[in-house]
Amino acid sequence: MNLYNNTTKALGTEAFDKVYGLGYEVNHKDWSPFQRVNKLRATFLNRSYEIDVERLRLVTEAYKKHETLPRKLQCAYAFENILMNTKLYIYDEDLILGEIAAPAKASPIYPEFSVDWIIDEILNSPFEKRSNDQFYIRNENERKEILELCEYWKGKSANELITSRLDENQKIGSHIGEKIFQTNNYHFAGIGHFAIDYNKLMTLGYDGVIAQAKNYLNKLSKKDAEYGSKRDYYEATIIMLEASKKYILRYANLAEEKAKIEKNPNRKTELETIAQNCNVVAGGTPKTFWQALQLFNFATTMIQIEGNGHSISYGRMDQWLYPFYEMDINNNDLTKEFALELIEVQYVKMNNPTKLKDKGTVKVRNGRGFGGESLTIGGVDKTGNDATNDLTMMMLEASVHTRMMNPWICVRMHENTPYELKVKTVECIRAGYGHPKLFNDGPAIKAILSKGISLEEARDYCVVGCVEPSVPGKEFGWLDAGYVNTAKMMEMVLNGGVTLDGKKIGPNTGSLETYKSFEEVLESVDKQFEYWTDQLCSCLNITDEVHRIVKPTPYVSAFFEGCIESGKDMTEGGVKYNGTAPQGAGIATCADSLSTIKKLVFDDKTHTGAELLKALKNNWEGYDKLYALVNSSKIPHYGNDDDYADELFKYMFECYCKHIKGRKNPRGGEFSPGVYTVNANVGMGLYTNASLDGRKSMEPISDNMGPVHTACGSHDISGPTAIVNSVSKVDHSLASNGTLLNLRFPEEAVSGIEGRDILISFIDEYISKQGMHVQFNIMSAETMKAAQANPKDYKDMLVRVAGYSAYFVELGKPLQDDLIHRTELHF
Fold it and tell me: Annotated active-site positions, please?
């Protein structure tokens, strides 16, 4: 079977069915065939995570100097000050330059968004003393400087302004209060979760985009009621793009200086070529594959310098990068092997940016990277034909050779995905490092179409962050806008708007002591969900408005369709498609809770609602038989292909989606629902009382689209095919912000050619049944327990947490335990 165009051309540099191993190996050898890559990888792993003061210093200096200017221009001059004065780094063995205004693996500080938590944690909860996600301040002088600089930002940050505008009911529901929903991602940080139009960047370069902005500025009429605001936007854009050119030229000069004194002739030649690459892409368009990668890295890291939104994703890299690869290969200017080495160098470099997060966030979501740097490959093209090419396979090879947290490889699949790509993908999965994740073009494209996006554009979607489908350069979707703990909403359903520990926080829509029928329970669910999503979405709209005021982003806006054309920053609604997208967590917890009520109270009539409520209030203590019953197969549970329970999951899924979808946001767009938790189900569980699915207080709620697993045991007992059948009973496209299914197989379940082919068939079945997104851990519980006991032997062992992979030994113990307790499946 051939991959495309009926040719016999072999794609990639290795056989499509090459076996890369089975699970993690202790004391493994280097995976990459390139010594340079192995050295860069080892250097990265040996660096410590630090906090860097330089960006904080430079941005504060600029804001003080330009205090009277409009905010867009303040942002522009701050960006310029950073790029003109930040220290530059060229590391040994590096072939691609550009960092985030901080050394590799060091986190800058972004005071524009929030500083109170930084001050508090330095004084009271030192970053270096965290149980996980530690960061280190280099010395006492820098500690003092950070505190002094942060004082200037008190009363000026996004978080303070957002909090001051929330009413009491919004605060009660938010992370400030009872944590029914958590929107603190965008209180404390930039928005992110997008991919720019890399085609525009590559075909126009900075000079072309500057010319575009100047042209619109020159045509701007003073008769336009928004003349002042648009003029500020264009001027800010031009300042920032001109600064970008100068910044790249600084790197060119540094590379030239290093080349002059370099003794090794090979390295000297590399540095001279690197300098030439920088000179070309400083303003112009790349002429080679290497230059295209260099421009990509500069442009992307400057997005991260401008704002610290996470999940700054890379789009369909095998598509937008391919013309440069094809041209160099056809001209004999590039070998496949050197192209692969460049990709692997870039992959390692993608791990350099790190992001300091507050202790509340890291309790819910572990990880010190920027988070969500997805790289999408495969899928169909704009006409609906398979888009697999040479780079598709090579990007998988680079992933399995480097085996690092980033990039988060996502393979788009569809009914005509080539067999060779399926095999290569599964061989990477079987290697047990958590990459890649798989997306199904059918429901993903359908979901995007439901947002009013054209079919041609929808077919060009990429995945940003852990889960979310988005159209690069055309959509500013405010994805990952907030985590909604549906299990806590359900608590209000069970107890009349009162928490189990006695706090009246929501409307009284009935309780287990008053319901006369199961229909009344479902009506109460609907009313509670409407009330709490009102609180959530109004919070997000306030947050949206504050970001427009406090932190416009002219640099990145230049690479989105609509902004330069309209004279509006992306925070003002300048992008062609705008949205806001919070995600529901714990849907299976709610479904199994409803199944318990329906079965025991209304169908079998063996227990009263009051008895169930009392058991919950006592955290199941003294109710051992009832606790065992609720966790047993005598209660129908979601995930076993049982319509009794699966219909309740479908009800909960659709209830959440309908209360989110279609609401309006301040940028002229609409809300879109997602159904996933990533790893927040662990942190959310810490703030959630006992639930009727058989959870005890503080246990994780259900993860993503997966079935419940409590301390008493997993609720799915019928195998992986039954899970797929249950999951596919809902229309995934209703969750236009994405869905996620985690599955875990021990190594022996997928071993050998037979195991590989069974896994391929299983994936085919999931695709055919219209599941949107699935990913795998190929790792036994015993392997993870061994890593807990001997972390030094497993320091680079990656696990699939949710939409992302992370080093297992760096995760907090509650999250490690949750991964261990997930159902271990066998075919």
Answer: 466, 468
